[in-house]
Amino acid sequence: MSGEVLSQSEIDALLSAISTGEMDADELKKETVEKKVKVYDFKRALRFSKDQIRSLTRIHENFARLLTTFFSAQLRTYVQISVASADQIPYEEFIRSIPKMTILNVYDVPPLDGRILMEVNPNIAYAMMDRMMGGKGSSINKVENLTEIETKIMASTFERSFENLREAWANVVDIDPMLADFEVNPQFLQMVSPNETVVVISLNTTIGETSGMINICIPHVVLEPIIPKLSVHYWMQTDKKDREPLEIAALEKRLKQADIPVAVELGGSEISIQDFLMLDVGDVIELNQLIEQPLTIKVGDVPKFVGQPGKLNKKVAVQVLETLKGGDDDGE
Question: Where is each Flagellar motor switch protein FliN-like C-terminal domain found (predicted)?
């Protein structure tokens, strides 16, 4: 029965029908307890929870910001990329939803199994290529007649752009994206079975005055090993202390790659300003350092080591003898 409110006349008529036998009260009770049946489509299996979809959305919102910065620097024009939607659909439905001729970039993402697909609307792809070739960013759609040079430029651009996905996924899994295939016809691309569930993240993209969509298709088989990490409980249970060693290791790795100046001090001397002004080519300045004495090696402006001069492969060199220690300038 519906939840609408009956008028007094309708209530009287209902009671009269029950009392005369025209309506059975037991049948009314059966109707109220009848279970509602929800239709489930097995071809459109929902294999991701809403919580996991939200986690994927957050990851790709970060990816969209990284892409915006990357393409802005590469194209030197106005670029805006943002997540429009994230849905789970059968792979076959995704293929039917994209243009018959479009830009398809297929990536391997080891250590995860399977491949990820990035579909770029041809208008967007041509606008990017036009900017990279020195144009204004105008767009034409002749994707079916891509030349070898155009294919190489596009593939190279999207291969470098997908490196940003590594940073976006860093808190979940350390992946190494690599371009595996470049295609323009979706019918020639069969990554998974037609009924396989995929997550499609659609990105609204604006390049100059051209707008379009970039779709990222991730099959369930790729995400299956890391699905527990996409839960909000995983994020809440992750202790900050567990992340600190990773952060420290990453910082140490960056520091080890930093360039620092190293200088060897042969000695020093003090002269008057008058003598300094009178210096000429060929004049000799006596240093306060004997040849037999070890030399001071400075890292930056801080004395760190003691060494001796010499030659290595016919080049002037210095050999480190010991480390200087003491106070704030501890060499450890």
Answer: 254-324
Residues of the chain with CATH 2.30.330.10: 262-329
| Paired tokens of 278 | 């009178």
Q: Which residue intervals of the chain bear CATH 3.40.1550.10? A: 44-251
State phi, psi for 302 to the nearest 5 degrees. Answer: -105, 125
pTM listed for this prediction: 0.57
Strand partners, 80: 206
CATH number of 44-251: 3.40.1550.10
Tell me the pLDDT tens digit for each residue of 219-267: 988 888 888 887 765 555 554 545 567 677 878 888 888 888 888 888 8
Name the fold adopted by 262-329: Surface presentation of antigens (SPOA) (2.30.330)
Query: Residue 110 — φ and ψ, nearest 5°?
Result: -60, 145
How big is the chain, counted in residues?
332
Start-end of H helices in the chain: 8-20, 25-33, 50-75, 91-97, 122-132, 148-161, 164-168, 220-223, 232-237, 240-256, 273-277
**Which value, to the nearest 10 degrees, does the dihedral of the CA atoms of residues 178, 180, 185, 187 take?**
-120
| Measured CA distances, 271 to 89, 268, 286, 313 (Å) | 82, 10, 10, 36
Q: Say which amino acid occupies 305.
A: F
Q: Give per-residue pLDDT as tens, 101-145.
A: 888 899 998 888 888 999 998 888 888 888 888 777 676 666 667
Dihedral of the CA atoms 304, 308, 312, 316 (nearest 10)?
90
295-299 and 178-183 as β-strands: parallel, antiparallel, unpaired?
Answer: unpaired
d(CA 23, CA 327): 100
| Chain centroid offset of residue 83 CA | 13
Cα distance between the two ends of the chain: 82
